[in-house]
Amino acid sequence: MQRPLADEIRPKTLDEVVGQRHLLAPGAVLRRLIEAGTEANMVFYGPSGTGKTTIANLIAEKTHKALYRLNATTASLQDIKNVIADVDTLMAPGGILLYLDEIQYFNKKQQQSLLEFMENGKLTLIASTTENPYFYVYSALLSRSTVFEFKAVPPKEAEPAVLRALEIEKARAPLEWEPGLPLQIATACGGDVRKAVNAVELLCGAAVLQDGVRRLSCADAEQVSQRSAMRYDKGGDAMYDIASALMKSLRGSDPDAALHYLARFLEAGDLVTPCRRLLCSASEDVGMAYPQAVAIVKACVDTAMQLGLPEAQLPLAQAAVLLATAPKSNSITEGIGKARADVRAGRTGDVPRQLQNVHADTTGFDSRQHYLYPHNFPGHWVAQQYLPDALKDVRYYEWGENKTEQAAKAYWEKIKGPGK
Q1: 10 Å Cβ neighbour count for 339?
Q2: Strands 213-216 and 208-210
Q3: Of the candidate ranges 87-91, 121-125, 379-383, the one whose mean pLDDT is the lowest
Q4: Could you tell me the pTM of the whole model?
Q5: Do 41 and 233 touch, CB atoms closer than 8 A?
Q6: pLDDT, tens digit, for every residue of 333-352?
Q7: Alpha-carbon distance 279 to 292, whole Å?
Q8: Across the chain, how many H-helices and E-strands are there?
Q9: 229 DSSP assignment
Q10: 268 phi and psi, to 5 degrees?
């Protein structure tokens, strides 16, 4: 049976590993640890296909430990006990290096079962996860480990791996490919080298045979990897990273970036997440600088949800560009934030008598409410205390520097007087 290409191409040395220069360049901490054969518990955090398993294999070779592999999606507590049972036996005379893939799927009890053996050094743990370990890994286990973050491999760094895969396939049977195909595959893989190698294997299996030679075309490569560059896992780190980037692009008034991150949601078929972010940004980032933005964005979102994809892209893109190019004000965010902080801290006080509900007049000693009805006064305003006594001089809302809020400020200063 022929070995999978991804397994055959797996690097045998650190220099063959593509990407992760921040971890594996000469002098980098992780490289020095590996070359010194240091036994350390580690958590490898990053997207799939970036070399986490490969580097775990190289560490096992350097430390001369027996390498055990478990995948937390299928492993049980009994599987952990079976691994631990081999400690101090002929099965693992030099100790055990346990590579635990997808550790985020282990519950607290399963993770705790490893602690005793990590403490005495009989078991070295290398755990990998595609999710943020600070959210998913038990704190006691995390405190005994060093976290190394792996990053998606840039196309130029993934291209040599694609070329190596093509050469291996060429050695198996005659093979030719169009110029630019290796970089195209490396770009489309979205930083996942395993995905790129699998794409090569799939292309070779479906290659057009001409005169005994398999020929690979860029058109076929595009079909195989048309959505490979998408890194999106609903509810996972990738989703929240893209949502954060969309929100910050809107706030940063960059319509091109806003459209880019919106497009990534649309390609993943997720309408709900970008709609929530667009609605939020209308108040959080634009706010009183352009109050009508809320109504317009709400209309765009409603239209998108009624249309569905692909037509939904148009009203959502309209909302994104509107928010990105609108004047900005966070006066609402700051104001409600300060007000809620006071309430949480217990700084409240009784509602002023003149603002209480009318029925209160019949229950107190003073039947007069003393409320002044603003519409009975010039400019529809009259000086009167609205905040509780303990907060009567507090100011939560500060006028923004944009045209809309400054116009409102000028209007009320004319009626109330400066500084009111």
Answers
A1: 15
A2: antiparallel
A3: 87-91
A4: 0.60
A5: no
A6: 999 999 999 999 998 888 88
A7: 12
A8: 20, 8
A9: T
A10: -85, -5
